[in-house]
Each structure stands twice: as structure tokens, then as C-alpha cells.
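Retro notes, structure queue

What went well: the backlog is down to a handful. What didn't: a couple of records were mislabeled last round, so from now on we paste the full input next to the output in the thread. Example, using ArfGAP with dual PH domains 1 from Gallus gallus:
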Amino acid sequence: MGEGGDELSRTAVKESRYPDWASHSLGIFICLNCSGIHRNIPQVSKVKSVRLDDWDDAQVEFMASNGNNVAKAKYESKMPPFYYKPTFLDCQLLREQWIRAKYERKEFIHSEKQEPYSAGYREGFLWKRGRDNGQFLSRKFVLSEREGALKYFNRNDAKEPKAIMKIEHLNATFQPAKIGNPHGLQITYLKDNSTRNIFVYHEDGKEIVDWFNAIRAARFHYLQVAFPGASDADLVPKLSRNYLKEGYMEKTGPKQTEGFKKRWFTMDDRRLMYFKDPLDAFARGEVFIGSKENSYKVLEGLPPSTQGNHWQHGITIVTPDRKFLFACETEDDQLEWITTFQKVISRPMLPQEYAVEAHFKHKP
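Corresponding output:
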């Protein structure tokens, strides 16, 4: 079976139900994708094809007496609840570091090996993309659960941090393609109730994944205090989130008489943000997407009088205050965006989301 968690694509589900590969030294069945990673740690994992390779009796017996559930009980016995368990859909880096942490470094058997992300404090240097010039420069980062913040400093000897990012509003998501680095991590936080993006990486894969899990650990402990009655299962989905969808669309302004402009859109929970460039620090604008009970809806197409769009596949989002008009380049894009918007709109709003909606309505 694949090494990841629950949210698998159809191909992955098929692969993981009928895995064609196995690690005969660990006694586990694995998918094709994970087999390549296992081959890179031959001192720990010896890989064979279930169908194509020859198996001797001892190897078959070992597989029969072990298996994935036995391995999971052993190698994940002390896995902290906040540690991110990747799925088939996650980037190569997350999947590789998960397999190495589990089998090579045995981090979830020996709790002391979890210090880099579970200690509640972490500091180090990350390459950070400059807001204005796009250059990556080495910056010191400090994560402190006690202070409830992640900070970074523009100079090593700087007394004051360049930014203080509250753990309460922090998110981290791996974005290798967008950032142009296989270890690229996008960190977002709220600054004056607007979303601020920073883009970082580290040459060492373990290092950047440890930072990611340290952020998740800090969020986990913050939420445990904020919601004392909540179970781990309630809190873990809130530790970090991937974007529901990203990509280019065209948009027009509130009067809907201006021309349409191409912008990069990001759907982050209920915040639809648009940027001139995918790596911009701040969004040019944000739209709150509420629920159908609160008069939000998404329609295919644009009003008949609409002019100025170069792309033909329109989407109209209706909110209590106004309509937002977008156009997609292809029909597939249009369908994917509509499906994403419908998922958000069909979800009832949480009490805290009403406060966010109110803020959006009062934005200048």
C-alpha cells in the first residue's frame, strides 16, 4: 500500500488496493511511487516486484508474518498526532521525508528523535524570497510556542524582527512548482486582517519538513488551549491546509464596465484571493465566499451584457452585496473552479466565519 493517508486519487486507490511492489526487508506492500523512494534507502528497505521478481520461501514467509498493519504498529507507535502524514497527492519531498522518518530514522519509535519539531522552540536559517526583487536571501527564523509566534530577522544581529507571525493565524503549505524549488514552502499569516505570503526553502529536505511539522505542532498546542474540549481528530485537520484550488482567471471590477484582467487566484478555505503574480506578497483583493444559506451562489456563465473578457468560459459568484464576474481560459478550468466554489458554498458557515464575513463587508 502507498505510505500516505486518506485522500487518494482514483489511480492511487487502485494502486494501493493492488500494490505491485513490496519491501521484503520491512515486510510491507507499497505502491510504485513509494517503491522508488524505498530504493533510495537500500540499507533499510529491499524492494521487489510482487509479479515480476522471483521470491524465495523465506521472503514469502517473512511477508506473510508481517505486513502493513504490523509495520504500522511498530514504526508509528509513538507518532505525534500533529505530524503530517502525506497522501499520494502530496509533493515528492513530503512523501520521501515521511518514509525516511518512519523507517530510516525511526522517529516514531524513539520520541527523543522528534525534538526538532516537538520542542516548542526552533530557530535556524531559511532562504526567503525578497518581496520586491524576487531574490532568495538567507534569513534567521525563530518559532516560539511560548511567545505564540514565528518571527524572521533581516540581519543576524538585528534586535527587532522584520515580521511577527502569530501562530493563531499561521499556515504553511508546500508549493514546489510555484516557488520553483523542490523544497519550496509557502507560509501565510494575517497582517492587518489581510493575507501576507512569504516563500522559503532549505537545501536540506529534512530541515524544511521539520520546520513544517514544528509549525503544525505549535498550531496544535495553541488550538488545544483555545478549544480545551476538542479531540485530536477535531484539531488535526486545522493545523495546516492546502489550497482548494489555484490558477489563472480573468476578472473585472465592481462596476463591471472595466476590461477584464488576467490574475492568479487562490482559494484558501473561504478566502478567494487574487494576485498579479503567483509569488506576490499581498493579494490585490480578497473575496469572502459564504454559504448558500447566506445567499451565496455560483452560476455558470456571465450576464448577457458583459463585455471585455478575452476568455469565454464565464463564472458569476453572487454574494449578498454584489456579483463577481470571472472568465476561464478552458471549459475544464471553468468546471474545476465551479466545483470548488460549490463545495465551499454548500458547507454551512462556522460561528467564527461570520466574524470574518463581517470584516470583508466593512473593508474600505
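Agreed that this is the format going forward. Reviewer comment attached to the example: Residues 205-226 form the longest helix (22 residues).
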